[in-house]
Amino acid sequence: MKHFFWHVLTDIDFQLPLYLVSMGYWGNQPPVVRKDGYKAFQWIQCFDGQGILEIEGKSLTISRGQGMLLYPGVPHRYYPVEEPWTVQWVEFNGDFAGPLLQSLQFNNSMPLFVTKPDLVEARINEINHLYSIRNQISSYEGSYLLYGLLMDLFRYTSTSDTRSNQEQLEQLKPVIDYIQQHYAQPLTLRHLANQLGVTPQYTCVLFQQTLGTRPFAYINQYRIHKAKEILQLYPDLEISHISKKIGFDSPSYFIKLFKRSEGITPNHFRSVYKTT
């Protein structure tokens, strides 16, 4: 089954930096061969089955949870290998299309893994719905929706079967919030892992991949940040009290970490602040 809408292009469309050309749905995508490439940019997202994209001497599998971003003028062909190969597509163009994709690091035609396919599908369905209920959607509104789709692709896709950094940050948010609320208390790796519902080992992997640091290095960094706030707000508070307020039982260990992080001791930091 095929279902699609073509946008009747006007002079306004051609003046816009981004404009929609068509969008649609194939219940079972048939083989497509384009020896000279296509005339516009395309995003084709797979929702079921499996197909092969042949492009630039490569043969790439496109399965559920993936999509293919195709640049205009690049020879290619694609065909199903596990049917039904169900896809949705959006075709677009505009003077800003190429530069925008380049700025988002989508430098050429490529397959992409979609980390939140439901959200991207919802964006495409929004476009489809507006075209289906109106004879002609506003060119400006179409450009706006297209820009939102490209931002979704930037946010929710990656070139490998791993989540984007933004996605990893979103998964880490519960544990980051937990640290900020409980930094003054004793924290264990198990405490952190429980906030995510994953193993302690995977928690370490997420921190390293997303923030480039270990969980307890991040905790210490946040505690030092809070210590600097307290040193400025309460210039007469003893260092031992500050140490306990931010979760360190040992004042000497706190002083050591503070100096390693800031290059000066807490007392020196406080004296500098007093003179400013």
From TrEMBL:
SUPFAM superfamilies tied to this protein: Homeodomain-like (SSF46689), Regulatory protein AraC (SSF51215)
Keywords: DNA-binding, Transcription, Transcription regulation
Transmembrane intervals: none
Domain TFIIE beta: 157-240
Highest taxon listed in the record's lineage: Bacteria
Chain ranges of the HTH araC/xylS-type domain: 173-272
Database matches in InterPro entries: AraC-bd, Homeodomain-like_sf, HTH-like, HTH_AraC, TFIIE_bsu_DNA-bd, Tscrpt_reg_AraC-type_HTH
The protein, known as: Arabinose operon regulatory protein
Organism: Paenibacillus allorhizoplanae
